[in-house]
Amino acid sequence: MNEILITKKSADYELLDSGDLRKLERFGDFVLSRPDPQALWRKSLPESAWQNADATFVQTAGRGKWKNKKTFPEPWQVSLGGVNFILKPSVFKHVGVFPEQSANWRWLAEKISSRVSSGRQVSVLNLFGYTGGATVSAGKAGASVCHVDSSQFAVDCAVANRDASGLASAPIRFIVDDVKKFVEREIRRGQKYDCIVLDPPVYGKGTKKEVWNLETNLAPLLSQLPKLLSDKPLAILLSGYASGYSHISYAQILSDITKDLGGKIFSGELAIQESETERLLPAGIFACCEF
């Protein structure tokens, strides 16, 4: 089943316009202009609207810099998909949240809530957890969560987002570690999870400079995940930003590793809808095996 999961305008976020390889977004009351290689079409809004952005990201070799008309809010907190995020702009154009993932967070929360309401406990493993959108969503729905990322900065942000979302006492464990090594240790320990969520980057480095390369490391990692599933699993949810692959590829690799477990495979694209034109900006892919 192929789907498009669409993130639409909300109180704290909207895609105002896109085009000419850029996107114009509102986070709270603050408007950003950032590069986006998917926006091949022409802009809809007049150039004056773009020139009035509170901050514009200018790309340079490797990294980039922000040109501000206004100082970034401090603290800069927004609510997306029921999660409170404290945003922090980076030299890589990101601000600490991928709004297109809110559709996945909603789906995950609904699945967990349904099982919890029937009296069952749910454990979630969130690999490459970044700033904790899926982690906090799962925690709010009643799951215990293990959040793993190799970046101390990302994990610190996830902890802050957990606290900002009122879940300081929730059963959420945060671990800074290389994902591949962590998975190997969890398998040796006999740990089991009902749901595994992962949003691997194209390239990254572990805590001891271990190299992560999506092309060579994704398939071996996924092949290990069934060993971590409980007797009554809920789902494996895989997503990708700028991965260069089709969602069909992700769906077929999930189908391959879960063929002995059963489950329903579905996949598609993540997109953000412009608030004025309803045009869709592609923002990633996802694939899921739902048991």
The percent range for helix content is 25-40%
CATH homologous superfamily label of the largest domain:
Vaccinia Virus protein VP39
Order of helices and strands: EEEEHEEEEHEHEHEHEEEHEHEE
Show unreliable segments. none
CATH class category label of the largest domain? Alpha Beta
Q: Sheet bearing the most strands, described?
A: 8 strands, mixed
Spatial order of the strands in the main sheet?
Answer: 1-16-17-15-12-9-10-11
Task: Compute the number of helices.
Answer: 7
As an assembly, this protein is: single chain
The total count of strands amounts to: 17
CATH topology of the largest domain: Rossmann fold
Looking at the structure, what is the overall shape? Answer: globular
Instruction: Give the N-to-C terminal Cα separation.
Output: 15 Å
Strand content: 25-35%
What is this structure, in a nutshell?
With 291 residues, the chain is α/β, with parallel strands linked by helices. The protein has helices spanning 47-51, 102-117, 133-140, 152-164, 179-189, 214-224, 247-257; strands at 2-7, 13-19, 22-27, 30-35, 55-59, 64-68, 77-80, 83-86, 123-127, 144-149, 172-176, 195-198, 203-205, 211-213, 235-240, 264-273, 280-290.
List its traits:
17 strands, Rossmann fold, Immunoglobulin-like, alpha/beta, 291 residues
Q: Can you walk through the features of this model?
A:
The chain is an alpha/beta fold and 291 residues long. It folds into two domains: 2-86, Golgi alpha-mannosidase II (Immunoglobulin-like); 99-290, Rossmann fold, CATH 3.40.50.150. Helices cover 26% and strands 33% of the residues. The strands form four sheets. An eight-stranded mixed sheet has the order 1-16-17-15-12-9-10-11, sandwiched between helices. A hairpin with a 2-residue loop joins strand 3 (22-27) and strand 4 (30-35). Helix 2 packs parallel to helix 3 (133-140). The longest helix has 16 residues, at 102-117. It is globular, with a radius of gyration of 19 Å. The model has no long low-confidence stretch (mean pLDDT 96).
